[in-house]
Amino acid sequence: MSEETVNKQEMPEQLSDILLVLDKEKMKIQAVKSIDENGKMETVDPTKKNQNQFMRVDKGGDFFSNFFSNFFSQLKNPTNFTFFKVPAPVAAEKARELQKHVDKPTPQGEKVLKEHEVKAEPQPDKKQENQNNMATAQTTTETSEYRYKPEQIDWDTMKNLGLSKEYLEKRNLLDPLLRGYKTNELLPIGINLGGSILRTDARLSLQQGEDGNVIVAIHGIKKEPYLHFEFFGHKFTDEDKKNLLETGNMGRVVNLVNSKTGELMPSIISIDRLTNDVIALRTEFIKIPDEIKGVKLNEEQKQTLMEGKPLYLEGMISTKGTEFSATVQFNADKRYVEFLFDRSNNNQQAQTNQQITQQSNQQSQPQEAPRTFRGKELDDEQYNKFKAGQTIYVELKDKKDQPYKGYITFDKDTGKTNFEFPGQYKARVEPAETHKTQTAVNSEGKTNEATKNVQEPLNSGQQTPKNEKQQEQQNNKSAKSKGRKM
């Protein structure tokens, strides 16, 4: 059986599409044949003679979208090309038609080109923009496609950060990484600085480096959002800053400028409440649901949310079956419509943002105690005490597999785990116990057995007579007490 026959059996011609490409430098339409491991695309003339070499793709909408997204992410210099999707049986004819419209542009021809054009889904990488060190516009869509594979991850680097594949899987954090998104929570990581180790919390994401290798990106926590810098050509107004700090969303669409191509990108802007990064999302990737908590949205309401504006909804039904009302708004970082409840307005920007971050954390996910801490899985007895808020003793290992010990306590209010080395824990707890004893002596009239007969006021923390006079008082009282009993 010939290769051509096999191809036709696996993918019938009428159920497949052909990918055509326009090289913007050569202004020539070609048919895509393949893409090599270095991201170089191979093409052939779109003639019937070469049609057996055309790359065929299942024309199913979701399948094609996922395929093309993956194809585009691997392509070297993707902005040099414009892609078109055409049915396999008429690929050669369509290629000739498109070439005519490229050679002799007309309004009608432009319409035909747009009809067959495949919109390239940009990378989801949150690359930092120049010296401002800000997060770039997020341009990924909500999709089920996996952009990366587990074997592409540099697990040695992950291990150096104190993380493992098993740990990420248990926390359900590996899946969003493979889809091209940031982890939806902060992770405790350790960074080796040579003579010392820096331990901090950060969100992680995977990015494709210039050499094509997948790298681990660390999104550390900033003290406050960098709103005094220009962001992709946009200068934040006082109103923009106020909205971002109070709600986390700017509340309007602005044209951002692609620093490499000069392209204008209509986008909405939000704050990553976990790291304080400034995040943007192009409006073409905003998806508004038809219904929110039982309330069907009309076109006017959908348009309000599409423009990044807040919308007040009444008559929503909670998961407990109770009716409630709230303001909703599309968040560029989360990429979905979120609920905005009353937030405190503090004069200091840093404090305001901290309150917003804490409230967002509490609203977006339940504050449940993690079963694993720094790679150490707690047994049932430890976990039951830990989630109840009790301090437990644990033995851990650092990135060099060297053991160390300490105490951990789960804070239900913040959802964070507090760690203390034995010396820190004892320095905090033991004085507290001593203070409790002295309070009982001074405030409640209780005394230590060795000083209960001393008539003078005791010094703070005193457990025995401090001089001969007090010792004599203690001895005399004890003797008289024994005499009366006899």
TrEMBL record:
Question: What domain of life is recorded for the organism?
Answer: Bacteria
Q: Which residues form the DUF3945 domain?
A: 289-342, 374-421
* Alphabetized InterPro entries for the sequence: DUF3945 (IPR025222), DUF4099 (IPR025343)
Q: Where is the composition biased (Polar residues)?
A: 437-465
User: Which residues belong to any copy of the DUF4099 domain?
Assistant: 148-229
Residue ranges annotated as compositionally biased, kind Basic and acidic residues, are 111-129
List the residue ranges of the region (Disordered).
Answer: 97-145, 348-381, 429-486
Q: Where is the composition biased (Low complexity)?
A: 130-143, 348-367
Q: What is this protein called?
A: DUF3945 domain-containing protein
Protein species of origin: Chryseobacterium potabilaquae
